[in-house]
Specification:
The protein has helices spanning 17-28, 55-60, 64-68, 110-123, 174-179, 240-243, 251-259, 263-270, 313-333, 343-364, 370-376, 380-389, 397-404, and strands at residues 8-13, 33-36, 73-75, 77-81, 91-92, 105-107, 127-129, 133-139, 145-151, 157-167, 182-184, 191-198, 211-216, 220-226, 231-238, 273-274, 279-281, 286-288, 290-293, 296-298, 304-305, 416-418. It is α/β, with parallel strands linked by helices. The strands form four sheets. Strands 1, 2, 7, 8, 9, 10, 19, 20 and 22 form a nine-stranded mixed β-sheet that branches. Strands 4, 5, 12, 13, 14, 15, 16 and 17 form an eight-stranded mixed β-sheet that branches. It is globular. The structure holds flavin-adenine dinucleotide (FAD).
Length: 421
């Protein structure tokens, strides 16, 4: 009965970037939306470096003035550093895009950024319940999701009913885990260990906010992300067997040993002080077999999570939240939220993930380097830049042909389409 008379149009599981973006778009159109978020914001989250094509969803959400007024470090470029410390000429986004818009992005502290996004959704009319963890999807007799069960801070369980549930629960992938749809990406099964430094060496001028990708042996790499308050986010990513060689398992010992594998990282961190806490994740890239089902739609990392080497996660989360919001608004207007309505959304998102995934696979191949591809095909530089900047929904077939001259690329995974009733 509840399912036939729900108290809200849409329930969103999770108030991270994808959930907050979808909530803002749906609420702005005058529809009722309730976000259930397990944590109390601000809360810590990794994923701090944005890429140029985050601009369009941020603009659509009305966030650009807020970003410009924020303390976040401006990011104009990315550069790559060899293990011996040689640094490539930074790649400046303004060589390809407008410096006043797309070509300048940000390094964000997620605790603050995610509050800004969630507050933005509230301002547009979304209701948000924090410290409320969704524990179960509720379904009717025909298997359609009609709501969720959730547990509040005091441990009390409540049921909430809606015409549609959006899973924006991030890498934990609430729905795809419970429905058995979660599929790994075995070749991208890496381990990351990271921490924060204060007072370490920084580049000057336009390069102060540059992301640096610094290589270590075995196709491993460091990220070095300068943030405000003189802090730097720095992490190392590689195969687990490489990082734990010789039986080293303690995250701090792993991290400190790898610093010595890259001269630039060693030099930059030697002047600073580690803030102390070390983080580790080994749950890397994975996908949901289905992107929608009766009464259910997946966005952001809950749809697919890709290795973060090219910092595509927040862009894909915001973009998918906006696209899903538009598709949901159209469905509510047509009084039809059947899974088929989300086929275009899912195929577009999947195509974007697949393009980025090809580049990530190439990055880890021992026979690939961007330099070699561009040396042989100078005109490939533009397309590589576009994909790395997050312009992921373009036809890159010519670029893939050129990269295949150096290394194999993965076929497209047949995932993400809606599961029909
Ligand atoms: C090591 C590492 C480095 C990364 N670096 C970058 C980077 O530099 N740039 C970048 O763009 N991306 C990066 N990412 C990826 C980025 O973190 C994610 O892509 C992004 O946060 C996805 O946003 P989301 O909204 O889908 O999920 P999240 O940001 O994870 O938000 C999900 C929210 O759902 C809530 N939630 C979960 N389960 C429940 C539940 N049962 N009930 C209620 N609420 C729930 C969580 O508390 C959370 O707030 C990195 C990821 C990793 C692992």
């Amino acid at each position: 009965m509840h399912g036939m008379n729900p108290e809200t149009d849409v329930i969103i599981i999770g108030g991270g970037p994808s959930g907050a973006a979808a909530a803002a778009i749906i609420a702005e159109a005058g529809n009722k939306v309730l976000v259930l978020e397990r944590e109390k914001f601000p809360r810590y989250h990794i994923g701090e470096s944005l890429i140029p094509f985050t601009y369009a969803p941020l603009e659509r959400l009305g966030m650009i003035p807020k970003m410009r007024g924020s303390c976040f470090t401006k990011k104009y470029s990315v550069s790559f550093v060899q293990p011996d410390g040689r640094r490539s000429v930074p790649f400046y986004f303004h060589t390809r895009y407008d410096i006043n818009t797309v070509a300048q992005t940000w390094q964000v502290t997620r605790a603050e950024f995610d509050v800004m996004l969630l507050d933005n959704a509230r301002e547009k009319g979304a209701a948000v319940l924090e410290q409320t963890a969704v524990t179960r999807l509720l379904k009717n007799d025909s298997g359609t999701v009609i709501g969720v069960e959730a547990q509040g801070a005091g441990g009390v369980k409540r049921q909430f009913f809606a015409r549609l549930v959006i899973d924006a629960s991030g890498k934990e992938a609430f729905a795809s885990n419970r429905e058995g749809w979660r599929v790994g990406d075995p070749y991208l099964n890496k381990v990351a260990v990271w921490t924060y430094y204060k007072g370490s060496k920084r580049e000057q001028g336009l390069d102060e906010g540059a992301t640096t990708i610094a290589f270590i042996p075995d196709k491993g790499w460091f990220w070095h992300i300068p943030m405000h308050d003189d802090r730097v986010s720095v992490g190392v990513v590689a195969e687990g067997k490489y990082l734990t060689r010789g039986g080293v398992r303690d995250p701090e010992a792993i991290f400190q040993r790898e610093i010595r594998e890259n001269k630039w990282i060693e030099e930059h961190l030697s002047q600073g002080r580690c803030e102390g806490e070390y983080w580790l994740t080994s749950e890397y890239s994975r996908h949901s077999k289905y992107g929608a089902a009766p009464g259910l739609l997946l966005v952001g990392d809950a749809f697919a999570f890709l290795d973060p080497v090219f910092s595509s996660g927040v862009m894909l989360a915001l973009k998918s939240g906006v696209m899903a919001g538009d598709a949901v608004n159209a469905g509510l207007a047509a009084n039809d939220l059947s899974p088929e309505r989300f086929a275009d959304y899912a195929s577009q998102l999947r195509a974007g993930v697949e393009n980025m995934r090809k580049l990530v696979y190439a990055f880890y191949d021992p026979d690939f380097s961007f330099k070699d591809v561009v040396t042989r095909h100078p005109d490939a530089a533009g397309e590589i830049t576009d994909c790395l900047s997050g312009d992921v929904n373009k036809d890159y077939s010519r670029l893939w042909e050129r990269i295949r001259e150096f290394c194999p690329l993965p076929g497209e995974l047949p995932y993400g389409a809606p599961l029909h009733a």
